[in-house]
Amino acid sequence: MTEAQARTGSRDTSGGTRERVIREFEHRFGAPPTRVARAPGRVNLIGDHTDYNDGFVLPMAIDRAVWIAFRPRSDERVSIHSLDFDEHAGFALEDGASRIGGWVEYVRGVAWALRAAGADTRGWDGVAAGDVPVGAGLSSSAALELATARTFADVGGLSWQPSVMARLAQRAENEWVGVNCGIMDQLISAAGTAGHALLIDCRSLVSRSVPIPTETAVVVLDTATRRGLVDSKYNERRLQCEDAAAVFGVPALRDVDMGAFLSRSSELDPVTRRRARHVVTENERTRNAADALEHGDVGEVGRLMNLSHDSLRDDFEVSRHELDVMVELAQARPECHGARMTGAGFGGCAVALVERASAARFAGEVAAGYLRAAGLRPAVYVCTASDGASVESVCSA
Questions:
Q1: Which long-range contacts (CB under 8 A, 24 or more apart) does 78-81 make?
Q2: pLDDT tens-digit profile of 31-82?
Q3: Which residue of the set 185, 314, 315, 387 is catalytic?
Q4: Which domains does the chain have, with CATH numbers?
């Protein structure tokens, strides 16, 4: 993203995106769509690289989403056009052929996962578009997966069970696309609640809604740097965590508390020790942050966010220069409670908790400072917590 200015204040471009996919559908398919599915992106307040370790995360669904305007077909094919990529794709539902790559694999992967689970999948025509920045760490891929799942559920008459659909979308990304992500992105896109973050136990999928104080703004700081998860060291980090869990003799690092870590950390090589230390301490920070947020103690949440960034930078080593610059600029502002990189890392976004009354000033000052320091023009979004995936009818004029 290279927006010329920071985006500030409460905003909602979703209505425009919804109307855009409806218009394009009518243009391409000669009649209006019957329904429109929507699934949001997310920002994770704290708890990164803990989800695939069966740990705890605290994300919120944001007011940026992927929309699919669709209409059922009478055969077992999907025909879909992406406005974001200006590309059309089609495939047969029974087609298990080799991957062709690109955005359509997320759609094909969801179809494959549903069929593998025994779901009654039926064909449809669709047009997709979104305003979740791609590759920014805001889970544009999960938003596309859940919008696709919502579409298949509606066309096939499947009951919508957020945790079940999130698991199937995760399987699509793990086994079809080839990214060993955890469950967080898919679950928050499926089950988000307006005005709340969601503390998720990634093992049991038990979640708890945590209200975000009305006087506090969640600000997403896009560094204008990008990474591709499949080509990054994300999968390497996951293997390192699995190696550490094996040394401790547990299914996942979620089962290691700080006492156990300190007593046996010398058995780990230095790199694996750092990776494990991040996960163990991040799980503790995430649960503490949820408790603090529930009690309105945003100062404590901010302090924990700052510590999380240090750990992601130094122990897990998934930050980069631009992310560190953005976080430092945000943390230096008096209206900022705390800031950290968010998402898988290696590029993308940071997130900050800010006094809502000063959010516009914060956004402008941090964006200007980042442009001077990094030579890149950022985008800054003041986000609102939204509901998870939904579907609605298209009203005829």
A1: 78/107, 78/111, 78/123, 78/124, 78/125, 78/126, 79/123, 79/124, 79/125, 79/126, 80/104, 80/107, 80/125, 80/126, 80/127, 80/128, 81/24, 81/28, 81/126, 81/127, 81/128
A2: 999 999 999 999 999 999 999 999 999 999 999 999 999 999 999 999 999 9
A3: 185
A4: 14-210 (3.30.230.10), 212-383 (3.30.70.890)
How far apart (Å, rounded) are the C-alpha atoms in residues 300 and 335? 14
Annotation marks residue 185 as catalytic: yes
Distance, CA of 49 to CA of 283 (rounded, Å): 10
CA distance 48 to 59: 10
Element spanning 65, H or E: strand 56-72
201-345-331 Cα angle (round to 5): 90
Write the DSSP symbol of residue 395. Answer: P
DSSP state of 175: I
- On whether the CB atoms of residues 131 and 17 are closer than 8 A, the answer is yes
Calpha distance 377→168 (Å, rounded): 37
Q: Which residues are bridge partners to 69 per DSSP?
A: 36, 127
Structural contact between residues 354 and 332, judged by C-beta atoms closer than 8 angstroms? no
Are β-strands 35-46 and 336-341 bridged in parallel, bridged antiparallel, or unpaired?
unpaired
Predicted confidence band of residue 228 (pLDDT cuts 50, 70, 90): low
